Structures are given as structure tokens and as C-alpha cells.
Amino acid sequence: MSVAKIIEISADSPKSFEDAIVQGIAKASKSVHGIKSAWVKEQHVVVENDKVALYRVDLKITFVLD
């Protein structure tokens, strides 16, 4: 039997939502092991001078407990 836990993180990127997701999972995997899945809870953009400056995602990450 395995037990999983879900954590919520925020990540951002100046490139794209996809890059924010990739960067968020990469950063989380440095301290959380056994990541099995992630889903995007919300997406936001930061606008500066009438242009998108930052893509931000809120992720829920599932991992298996040791």
C-alpha cells in the first residue's frame, strides 16, 4: 500500500505558462522526492506597461510518501 500527499506551489516564468510549470516541478523535485503528478490549479499573468511580463501558475503536486 502507498500513501500520497499533495502540496501546492506557485511558480513563474517570463517565457510561458508551460515554462513556469516545468520550472516549478524542477524546483520542487529538489526537495520533494517521488513526484507522480501535477495539475494546474490557476494561471495568472503579471502585466507591466500593457504587456505580459510574467506567467504564473499555481500547481498541486502529488508525491508518494516514503
Biggest beta sheet summary? 3 strands, antiparallel
What is the C-alpha radius of gyration, as a whole number of Å?
A: 14 Å
Lateral arrangement of strands in the main beta sheet: 1-3-2
Mass-distribution shape:
elongated
What is the end-to-end distance? 11 Å
Rounded mean pLDDT score: 96
* β-strand amount: over 45%
Please mark out the parts with pLDDT under 50 across 5 or more consecutive residues, or reply none.
none
Q: Which sequence of SSEs, written as H and E, runs from N to C?
A: EHEE
Percent range for helical residues? 10-25%
Number of helices: 1
Protein structure class: alpha+beta
Record field, number of beta strands: 3
Strand and helix layout:
Blueprint (H helix, E strand, L loop, with lengths): L3 E10 L3 H12 L6 E14 L2 E14 L2
Antiparallel strand pairs: 1-3, 2-3
Overview of the molecule:
With 66 residues, this protein is α+β, with helices and mostly antiparallel strands. The chain is 18% helix and 58% strand. It has one helix and three strands. The chain has one helix spanning 17-28, and strands spanning 4-13, 35-48, 51-64. The protein has a three-stranded antiparallel β-sheet with strand order 1-3-2, covered by helices on one side. The longest helix is centred in the middle third of the chain and has 12 residues, at 17-28. The chain is elongated and about 50 Å long. It starts with a strand and ends with a strand.
